[in-house]
Design a protein that fits this description.
There is one protein chain. The chain is globular, with a radius of gyration of 17 Å. It has strands at about 10-15, 15-20, 30-40, 40-45, 60-65, 70, 85, 105-110, 115, 130, 140, 155, 160-165, 175-180, 185, 200. It is mainly β. The strands form five sheets. Strands 2-3-5-7 form a four-stranded mixed sheet, with no helix packed on it.
Amino acid sequence: IDWGDGTGASLSGSGNVSVQKAAAYSNEGDYLIKITCAGNYSVHTSGYILGDNSTYTSALLKCYLGNNIVSLPNSAFQKCSSMQYITIPKAITNIGSAFAYCTSLYSITFPNAITAILTQTFYANHSLTVAVLSQNITAIGLSAFQYCYKLKDFVLPNNLAKAENSAFNYNCSLNILKFPNATTVIENTAIAYQQGLTKIIFG
């Protein structure tokens, strides 16, 4: 999809796709993008939806994804440094490292279909404050929330079995972290370098 101004979106799948571009919010080219679809659909971006290879969607502020989107590949929104908000559709089962380096994203809610947070999913999301996890999540991968300095409203799901190395490294705003009875593996550096952590509860 070509916006006609040198920017665009790379989208593929089956069904009808509607992509709307609103007016610019500022002279720097901040856009509101709304993506909806009918049928099974995936976003394929190689790191960008709006912008070019060098900006990595730096102009994208908000993204509303249709409920029939089923997958977000690795790096789908990586380095969207201005993106503050995104909806994750209920049908999504896998998000990979889709949101690494989204330094302005402040809140995220996981749908129930997601059962694992994979490697570097939210790596270096410096503004992320709230992460609402599905109770169906059983594993949090390598560096999934590493360098999320402001993350503080964070409750681990009851079914969490494993937290991998560096999963929560440098989460400087966390005060209490409670692992459920289901957790059987916490790898060596899963919760290292916690400047504000005062209590860890098991079970």
